[in-house]
Structures are given as C-alpha cells and as structure tokens.
What we know:
Elements: H1 5-17, E1 25-26, H2 27-38, H3 43-53, E2 62-63, H4 74-84, H5 96-99
Parallel strand pairs: 1-2
Helix pairs in contact: 1-2, 2-3
Amino acid sequence: xxxxxxxxxxxxxxxxxxxxxxxxxxxxxxxxxxxxxxxxxxxxxxxxxxxxxxxxxxxxxxxxxxxxxxxxxxxxxxxxxxxxxxxxxxxxxxxxxxxxxxx
Length: 103
C-alpha cells in the first residue's frame, strides 16, 4: 500500500484533534496509528505535517517521547499547558507518564 500524502495529512490532523485537553500524545504514537492505516510514515513525517498544516489543531498536545517540544514552540505551548492543566515536570516539560494519551 503506498502512502497518499493528502490522506496522511488528514489522518494526522484528525488524530491530533482527538487528543483530550490536558493530555498529550507523541509524534511516534501518531505515526504508529496513522502509518498502520496508510502504510508508512514515521515521527518526523508527523512533525512535518504539523509544521505545515497544524495551525488549526491543538499541535501543542503532540510532544517528543521525553515530553519536550522543539525550543521554538515551548513558550506558546506552555501557556496552553497551564490553561489546560497538563501535568508538567519541574523542568517545564510535560510529565509524559501522567499526561500520555494513546490514539
């Protein structure tokens, strides 16, 4: 099965929209679910999709496996985390054990 880019983008964005307030998922978890349905794509592709198309969805709810975001996103994301009550570690990264939601 070949990877259809438009369908992949739609599936990634739909998955991100399902992440509940105050919870997060990882680029890898989304890649596993969407890739299993559509035949490919890894965490980097999920990140590329969110960079190009993620503005309208709660992109801050998708983090790296260690609970961090790229430095360029941390300030805006932190505001969302505080507003939503997302569990954070003292370091400011998301407490992935307490906040993880599996798609």
